[in-house]
Amino acid sequence: MLDHASGRIDIARLQETLDGPWAEVRQAHRKHLDERFLPVYGETGDQARERITRLLGELPVELGIAAGFPAEYGGRSDVGASIVATEMLAQVDLSLMVKAGVQWGLFGGAVAALGTKRHHDAYLRDIVEGRIFGCFAMTETGHGSDVQQLRTTCVYDPQTQTFDLHTPHEAARKDYIGNAARDGRMAVVFAQLISGGRRHGVHAWLVPIRDEHGNPMPGVTIGDAGPKAGLLGVDNGRLSFDHVRVPRDMLLDRYAQVAEDGTYSSAIENDSRRFFTMLGTLVRGRVSVGGAASAATKAALAIAVRYGDIRRQFSDAEGDREVLLNDYLAHQRKLLPALATTYALHFAQTELVAALDEIQGGDGPVDEHRQRELESRAAGLKAAQTWHATRTIQACREACGGAGYLSENRLPSLKADTDVFTTFEGDNTVLLQLVAKGLLTGYRDEFGSLDGWGRASFVAEQVREMVLERTAARALIARLVGAVPGRDDEVAVTDRGWQLKVFEDREEHLLDSAVRRLRGGASTKKDRPFDIFNDVQDHVLAVAAAHVDRVTLEAFVAGIDATADPAVKELLSRVCDLYALSVIEANKGWLLEHGRLTPARSKAITGVVNGLLKELRPYMRTLVDGFAIPDAWLHAAILREEPARQDEMAAHDAADPQAAGADSPGGVADSAAAAP
Amino acid sequence: MLDHASGRIDIARLQETLDGPWAEVRQAHRKHLDERFLPVYGETGDQARERITRLLGELPVELGIAAGFPAEYGGRSDVGASIVATEMLAQVDLSLMVKAGVQWGLFGGAVAALGTKRHHDAYLRDIVEGRIFGCFAMTETGHGSDVQQLRTTCVYDPQTQTFDLHTPHEAARKDYIGNAARDGRMAVVFAQLISGGRRHGVHAWLVPIRDEHGNPMPGVTIGDAGPKAGLLGVDNGRLSFDHVRVPRDMLLDRYAQVAEDGTYSSAIENDSRRFFTMLGTLVRGRVSVGGAASAATKAALAIAVRYGDIRRQFSDAEGDREVLLNDYLAHQRKLLPALATTYALHFAQTELVAALDEIQGGDGPVDEHRQRELESRAAGLKAAQTWHATRTIQACREACGGAGYLSENRLPSLKADTDVFTTFEGDNTVLLQLVAKGLLTGYRDEFGSLDGWGRASFVAEQVREMVLERTAARALIARLVGAVPGRDDEVAVTDRGWQLKVFEDREEHLLDSAVRRLRGGASTKKDRPFDIFNDVQDHVLAVAAAHVDRVTLEAFVAGIDATADPAVKELLSRVCDLYALSVIEANKGWLLEHGRLTPARSKAITGVVNGLLKELRPYMRTLVDGFAIPDAWLHAAILREEPARQDEMAAHDAADPQAAGADSPGGVADSAAAAP
Question: Which residues form the Acyl-CoA oxidase C-alpha1 domain (chains A, B) (predicted)?
Fold first, then answer.
C-alpha cells in the first residue's frame, strides 16, 4: 500500500524523472511557446494553413527544433534534442508539429542524410532557417506501404547530363505529401533510378517544384489532397512529374553515384540492402511520430483526469459526500490503466531516443546490428504509441461526455489530428510485421520481402534459434527474473520479477511456436510463400506485440530503478504494477491456455488491479501533473469554467437544500437522456 | 464448409432478409434520396448548418420520416417506420439524421407523448410539416446523466396563472441542445415543477424561444455550443431562462396537471416513477441512435471492404498472383468479425424495432413489465451499437490507410459524426448500468437510484432470483440449448446450441455472482451504498455486456431461422458462427477462469475463427452488398477512382515487366514509409 503520508509527492521530483535527459529542451518549450501557438478551433482549412505556416516562421530559436543538424548549418548535432522538440511541439499543436516535422525532419533530414557536402552547402542553412520549404515525396497513390516498388522513374541521359523524372500513370503520383499543396518550394523525390537501360532501385533527388512566385515548375503538376479528418494546418498535396529534367548533381548521392557518362556506382552492391540502408537513416521520423502521439495522449489524459476530479455526475444517495467522476471504478478503469501505459511508453520512448542519439548522433560508422535493432524498436514503439493514443484519446473524449465532443475542449482536435499516426510513417500492422521479422531472423536476413517474407525456404532456414535479447538495465532485469521461484503460485502477482518473467515467457513461447509453424508450413507448401506466411500472420503479429510489451515493461523498470526520490519511486512502482497487470489481464486468455496462469491466480489479478485503482485514485491528478504540461497548453474550456460552475451550484444548493434532491428518496436518477 | 458452387448468393434474397418488415421504407429512401442529400466535404460550420436546414425542408414526403405521428397530424401511426426512416437517413448524412431526429423524434415526439390534445391540435401538424422547428431541452451543463436532478425551476404562480421558468445558475443552463443555436422556434423544456411551495419533480413545458423574426424571446438567452468534432450541420446551442413567464396550459400535462389555483395532480403518485414513465415514452430516441450508428457502420464497412477488394498492397513474391488487401489474414481479422457483429446487431435492432412498434404503437395501455424490458433492451443495444460503430469505423479508416484520412473518402465524417453517439441519448456506461439494474431486480424495483442504487439494504432484498428470460424464438433457442450434451468437449464449437449455452452460462454466472457480491457487501457496510456498488461496478457492467451479447446472438439465430433461401441461410449461419466465436474468443479469459472452456478447446477456437475467415473471404463483398447501400451513397473517391488506377497500373506493368519488380529478388519491400 502506498503510504499516503510519506507518499505525498513532490511534483518537481516526478517531473524531473519524466523530463529525462533532454529536460532543458522541454523547459524551453514550456517557457517560449506562448498562447500565440495554441490551436484555434473552428478555422477553415485555408485559415489553418495560413496560420500554421506563419507560426512555423515564428518558432522561437530557443526551442532547438533544428538541433539535429550540424553546427555549420545552424544546428548543434543534437539528434535527441530535435526529437524531444518535435514531441513538445505536438503537445501544443499537432499541425504545427507535423508541418515542422516535414520541413526539418523528413525533408531537411533526407537532404542531410542522403545528400553530400555540395547539397548541404547549397541548401541546408536555408532549410534550417526556413527560407526553403520542402516536401518528402515518397508515397504514391498506388503504393502506400510497398515503397520499394514505387513506379515513378528517373532515367539518366548522358547526352544532357540530366535525369528524366516521370510519373508513368496516375497510381504513381506522389500522394498525401505534406507541404506540397501550398508551401513547398522543393521536394526530395523518391523514384526508380535507371541508367544505361539498367534499373538500380529507389533513390532520391532534390527537385524544385515551385518557382519563386509559387507557381509549379514546368512539368510539375501539383494537386491538393483536400479536406482531411484533422491536421487542417498541413497542406497535404499530390505531385506528378511529366518528364521533368533534373540536373545530375541533384541526385542525393551519399549512397550511390551516377557518373557523367551514366556509370552507376555504390558502396552497397545489393539494391535492396542499399535502399533499406537509405531508409534506415530516416528512422527519426518514426521515433518522432511515436513521441508526438504520446505527447497528445498526455494532454488528453490531463484534460480528462482534471475534469473527472471536479465534475460530479450523480449525488451520493446519502448526499453527505461529493462523488466525483474519478471516484467511479468504471471511470478509473477507463483512465488509470491508460495512464499507467502512458507512463510505461514514456520510459520506453525516452530509452529509444537515447539509443537513437547514441547510434546516429556520432560521426563514426553505424553498427549495423544495432541500427537494425533500433529500426525495429522504433517501428514497434511507433505502432504501440499511436494505437495507444487513438484508443486513449477516444476514452478521454468519452470520459468527458458531451463536453468532450465540443472543439472548445480540445479533445476533438487531439483525436482527429493524431488519428493518421496509426497509418503514416508506416502502417502499424506493417510495422509490427517488420518487428516480428527482425525477431524471427535475429536481424540477420538479406533485407528480403516483408510481405511474402521472401522465399519460404529461405526464411525457414533463417529463423533464428530463440535468444531473447534484453534491453536496458539487463543486469537488474536478469536479477529480478532470476529471483522468481519455480512455482509461480508462491509469488505475489505484484512481484516485479514474476511480472517480467510472464512478459518474457509470453514473447519466447509465441516466437518459438511461430518459428515452428513457419518451418512446418514451409516444408509442406514450398511453392506458396504468401500462404505460408498469411496463415500465421495473426500469430506473427502477436509475437511483435508481446515483444513491444516486454521492452516497454523493461524500460519502465529501468526508469524506476534510476529514480532517486523514494516517494516518486514508490508511486511509479505502483503505476508499473498497474501497467504490468493490465497487460497480463488483457492477455489472460492466452496465459491460461498455455498454463502460465492458473484460473485462481487469473481471477485474483482482477481484484489486485481494482485494488491498485483504489490505491492510485488519490494520485490521478498527481500523475497527470507530472507531465508538467503548462495549464495554458491544455486549452480546454471545461477546465477553465467548470470549477466556477461547480462552486456556484454548490453554493446555490446549500442555500436551497431541496434543489440538491434531499427530498427525493432514491436520491439520484437512473436514466441518462442527454439530448443531442 | 460453404459450398461455393451452391453457395453463390442471390443478393436480392440476402437484401430481403436484412431489409425485414419495413423493407418498403428502406426502398423509398434508396429511391428518393438522391445526390442532393449527400454530405459535402470541407464546408464551414455555417455552410453545413444552412445546407442541412434547407435539406430538412426538402426531404421527400415518400420517406415517411414523420410516420410515427397519428394520421390526423400528418403521420400514419407507424412507429417502426419512423425509426427505420431515421436509420436510413443516417446512411446518407448523419447531420441530416440528427437534425431530423431532434425535430420529429425528440421535439415532436415529446409534444406527442407528453402533451395532450390541445397541444397536439395547436402544434403537431406544424411540427410534422416543418413549419415549427423545435428543441428538446433536457440536458444541463452541470447535469449530463443525472437528469432527475436538473436545476432549472418552473414555479407556478396562481395570481397570473403562469409558470416562472428560471435558470438559477450557469451549471443549470441547457447545453448541447440540437436546433437551439440557429433554427429552433420552440423548445420542450424540462425543469423542476414547483407549486404552492412544493416540488413535484421534473416535468416538461412547451416554450417559445424565438419570435417570428428569429430573435430570442424576452428572458431567453441563446448561446452557440460552437464547433464540434462532427455533425457540423447540427446547430447545438445553450439556453438560459431569466424568469420567463410560461402560460399554464403550456405544461405538457399528459402525466400531471396543475389546476388554476395551483393544485397539482397526477395519476402516478410517486415523483420518480412518474418521471421515469415520462422518460419511457421517449425510448425511441435511443432506438434511433442505435440504428443510426449501425447504418453508419455498414457504410464504413462497405467502403473498406470494397477498397480492400481492389487494392493491392504488396505484390506476391512470385508475382504470379494478385494479392489484394482483403487476402491478408490480418486485414480479415480487422474487418470480418466486425462485419459479422454488424450482422448480429442488425437482427437484434430489427427485433427491437418490432418490439417497440408493438408495445408503443397500439392504442391500449402499455404493459409495464414489457415497457421496462424494452427500455433495457433499447439501452443495451444503443450502447452496443454505438461502441461497435466507434471501433469499427476506426478500423475501417485504418484499413484504408492514408486514403481513409481524406474527407473525400467519407470515413472521416462517418467517424466524427457518430463519435458523439456513445455519450448522447444516454452515456453508454450509465446505460449499461441501467441494463444491469433491470436484470438484478427483475425490473421490479421502485425506480430508485441507478448510481448509488438506492439504499443498499433495499437492493440487497430486491435482487431477484436468477431467471433468465429468453427473447425471440424462445422455443428454437431452448431446443438448441437443450440438445447440447453434458460434456462440452464432445460438441463442435460451431454447434449453435453450444454457442448459445456458453453465452447463457456466462450471463447467468456473472449475474448470480454479482447478486452474491452485492448482498455480501450490503451485509457488511450498510452505511455506504456508494462503496458497495462501486466495488462491483466493473462486474455489474460485465453482466450487462454479457446480457446484450446473449440477446444479440439469439436475435441472429432467430433471424437465420426465419430466412427462406437456403444459400442465404447457409451463409448467414457461417457469419453467425464467426460472430459467436469472436465473442467467445474475446472472452476466453473469463471462460477459462470459470472452467467453461478447456485450454485445448480455447486454442482450437482461434483456429476455427481463422478457418471461418478463410471461408468467408470470398463473400466479403457479398456481405456488404447485402446492405443494399446505393453506390452513390457511399460517396467515396477511392471507390470511384481506384479500379481505374489499378487497371492502368496493371497495363503499364504488363508493358514493362521490370516495373513490377520482377528483377528484385525478394520481390517486395518490408518497410512502409508513407510520408505525412
Answer: 280-440
Whether residue B661 and residue A149 make contact (CB cut-off 8 A), yes or no, is yes
Catalytic pick from B140, B351, B375, B425? B425
Q: Is B655 on the interface with A (CB under 8 A)?
A: no
Q: Which single residue is written with the C-alpha cell 466556477?
A: A644
pLDDT of residue B642: 74
**pLDDT tens-place string over residues B244-267:** 999 999 999 999 999 999 999 999
User: What residue of B is the nearest CA neighbor of A102?
Assistant: B676
Among the residue ranges A107-116, B7-16, B17-26, B335-344, the one predicted with the least confidence is B7-16
Strand partners, A223: A238
Q: What residues have CB less than 8 Å from A66, skipping those under 6 apart?
A: A74, A75, A82, A104, A108, A128
Burial of A396 (0-12, 13-18, 19+ CB in 10 A): buried
Chain A residue with the nearest C-alpha to that of B391: A391
Shortest alpha-carbon distance between residue B96 and chain A (Å): 13
pLDDT higher than 80, residue B214: yes
- Partners of B420 on chain A (C-beta within 8 Å) are 402, 405, 676
pLDDT in tens, B400-451: 999 999 999 999 999 999 999 999 989 999 999 999 988 887 766 544 444 4
| Cβ–Cβ contact A449 with B under 8 A | yes
Q: Model's pTM, two decimal places?
A: 0.94
One-letter amino acid of B598:
T
Residues 6+ away with beta carbon under 8 Å from A349: A87, A287, A290, A291, A294, A381, A385
Q: What per-residue confidence (pLDDT) applies to B7?
A: 56
Maximum alpha-carbon separation in chain B: 94
The answer to whether B212 is a known catalytic residue is no
What the block records as the C-alpha cell of A376 is: 525495429
> Which DSSP string do the residues of A303-334 spell out, in sequence order?
HHHHHHTT-B-S--TTSSSPPBGGGSHHHHHH
pLDDT at B447: 40
> What pLDDT does A455 receive?
40
- Please answer yes or no on whether B145 and A279 come within 8 Å at the CB atom: no
- Cβ-count burial A271-296 (b if 16+ within 10 Å, e if not): bbebbbbbbbbbbbbbbbbbbbbbbb
Give the mutation candidate from A95, A143, A441, A671 for the B interface (greatest B CB count, under 10 A). Answer: A671
Q: Answer yes or no: is pLDDT of B660 > 70.
A: no
Q: Name the more confident of A276 and A461.
A: A276
B275 neighbourhood in chain A, CB within 8 Å: 669
> A44 to chain B: nearest residue by CA?
B44
CATH numbers and ranges of domains, chain A: 19-133 (1.10.540.10), 135-271 (2.40.110.10), 284-625 (1.20.140.10)
pLDDT of residue A468: 52
- Which of A511-515, B159-163, B555-559 comes out lowest in average pLDDT? A511-515
Residue A456 has pLDDT above 50, yes or no: no
Cβ of B169 within 8 Å of Cβ of A649? The answer is yes
CA quadruple A346, A352, A354, A360: dihedral positive or negative?
negative
Tell me what the mean pLDDT of segment B343-360 comes to: 95
Q: Does B668 touch chain A (CB under 8 A)?
A: yes
The whole-angstrom separation of Cα B247 and Cα B119 is 13
Least confident residue range of A89-93, A448-452, A597-601, A650-654 = A448-452
Chain B CB contacts of A610 below 8 Å:
535, 538
Contacts of A177 in chain B (CB under 8 A): 675
Per DSSP bridges, beta strands A134-137 and A186-195 are parallel
A646 chain-B contacts, CB cut-off 8 A = 142, 171
In the set A425, A504, A507, A554, the catalytic residue is: A425
Residue A13 has pLDDT above 50, yes or no: yes
B281 touches chain A (CB under 8 A): no
Q: At B438, list the grid cell.
A: 433491470
